[in-house]
Amino acid sequence: QVQLVESGGGLVQAGGSLRLSCAASGRTFSSYAMGWFRQAPGKEREFVGFISWSGGRTYYADSVKGRFTISRDNAKNTVYLQMNSLKPEDTAVYYCAANVAAPTSRWSSYDYWGQGTQVTVSS
Question: Is 34 in contact with 47 (CB distance < 8 Å)?
Fold first, then answer.
């Protein structure tokens, strides 16, 4: 069992930056691939990116590639989402998720989810 808690969301102007954190409970955090997803009002959940258990592999949606970076610190049981050059269309609730299997962009493959943190980008 893994519990995930996101933090770091807020209101930022377009072009600004935010760093989201996802703190995990449990001693097996380092064995999970971690994903970030987001959901805007009235829209479907959208894949943002994932990181492998070791941190050696990352993958991003085209919409955030080059602007967002995922990293993890297994000693701190935490995964991060650094968001730069934010755009109004990045406004959404951001969720982290843990997957016991291989990292994937499919949200249905993830086993554990956080409660989400709101990111609002003003124009």
Answer: no
